[in-house]
Amino acid sequence: MANLLLRTVTKLVKRLVISHHKRSGVVLFSDTTLRDGEQMPGATLEPDEKLRIALALEEAGVHSLDAGFPASSEADVAAIQQMVGVVRKPVLTALCRTLDSDIDAADRALEGQPKHKRGASLFCGTSPLHREHKLGKTKTEILGIIEKSVGYAASKFEIVSFACEDASRTERDYLCECYKTAIAAGATTIGFPDTVGILTPEKSRDFMKVLKDGVPNLDRALLAVHFHNDLGLAVANTLACIAEGANVVQCTVDGIGERAGNASLEEVVMALTLHADQYGRKHNIDTTKLAPLCELVAELTGIAMNPMKPIAGRNVWATEAGIHQDGLLKNPDTYLPYRPDQVGGPAVHLVLGRHSGRRAVAHRLRELGLEPDDARVSRVLERIKELPKGAVLDDARLSEWARS
Ligand code: MN
User: Fold this and answer.
1) How far is the CA of 268 from the centre of ligand 1 (A)?
2) Which burial class, exposed, middle or buried, applies to 273 when counting CB atoms under 10 A from its CB (0-12, 13-18, 19+)?
3) Quick check: 162 and 189 in contact, CB under 8 A?
4) How far is the CA of 167 from the centre of ligand 1 (A)?
5) What pLDDT is stored for residue 227 in this prediction?
6) How do 118-125 and 159-165 pair as beta strands?
7) Residue 48: pLDDT over 80
8) How far apart are the C-alpha atoms of 303 and 40, rounded to whole Å?
């Protein structure tokens, strides 16, 4: 009797939490750097490195962390166990195939984590390609697997997410049926992954409409999206789904991940922040933590950032072009989309090279305590133009030239 009452109350609380999240309009960030990101060739992280990243993500304000795939390796189990009880604010989720043994492994790995801060994240291929070539199962058999495995996960976890792998290449009617089955079996989140990164923003948005119209019990679960960047559209697709009401976005720091990577967390956050008027959706990410987070992930994974990487690449806050340097010195906003301190980035750096002009040279000389008189500036500029291809002028050489 007491048990029945507890189960009823728990169910009610879950419904209230889900409807609260849905009504609040807050975009919840679910980070998968430590799972999908780490899956990338060459990006292996040790358990203590994963913990450092997890704590930095917690500080940045992510809602949940895809902490690993316990059934896949002992290292994943070890990493998750290090996070249990230490990473307190985000929900820690563990990836599972639709197998009881995977769900049991997730349950063991997350032992000790408070019930409302741990979840199982199940996936099963649903597209014709996955059904026929990977799983060798019929549509009906897969519906049965979803019902059974989600039900089992729900008996062990209060938070259960279910994703149709290769959702973007699954027949729409069948996709809706899979999600309906998962929610009926106890899924609290349904995930829509564009597993091979094939969609455009318009088609992504259409899928959201299809799910809203075709999944009758969608009011009982959060809707999460997961985009890959094979066409360079992962961030754009994520934003398109936010515009259409997606509740949770799965992203990675620096956009690392399988093949061309995942939607980049920092880029989605900044687009939402700078275009709050357009999206009308709040988020709980502290943007000043973004650039340091990008640096940390690049450092620990050993995957160097492209110099042009939005938000944190080394060229984002550096400029060599004379006209831009002149504008930036008069008012930084002339050639910046936002100030670097908004993302915790470094101060704007004026690079002195072949493209630089008088004003930047004079500015740097003054910073070095050298009077920037006309003759001196001209002398430096003259020599800058003779720098070899790709070279930039450092302070030591600048002082030497200015004094000679
Ligand atoms: Mn993925």
Assistant:
1) 16
2) middle
3) yes
4) 11
5) 98
6) parallel
7) yes
8) 10
DSSP string, 29-47: EEE-IIIIITTSTT----H
Q: What is the pLDDT of residues 227-273, one digit of tens each?
A: 999 999 999 999 999 999 999 999 999 999 999 999 999 999 999 99
Distance 263 CA to ligand 1 centre (A): 10
Amino acid at 195: T
Measured at the CA of 266, the angle between CA 261 and CA 271, to 5 degrees, comes to 110
Q: What is the DSSP letter of 283?
A: B
Contact at 8 Å (CB) between 152 and 190?
no
Give 314-345 as a DSSP string: TTTTEE--HHHHHHHHH-GGGG-SS-GGGGTP
Counting beta carbons within 10 angstroms of the beta carbon of residue 9, is it exposed (0 to 12), middle (13 to 18) or buried (19 or more)?
exposed
Residue 251 Cα, ligand 1 centroid: separation in angstroms?
Answer: 9
181's CB contacts (< 8 A; 6+ apart) are 143, 146, 147, 150
d(CA 209, CA 267): 24
- Closest Cα partner for 60 from 198, 208, 331, 253? 253
29 CA distance to ligand 1 centroid (A)? 15
| pLDDT, mean of residues 5-11 | 88
Q: How many Å lie between the centroid of ligand 1 and the Cα of residue 289?
A: 24
Distance 293 CA to ligand 1 centre (A): 20
| pTM exceeds 0.70 | yes
* Rounded distance from Cα 193 to ligand 1 centre (Å): 7
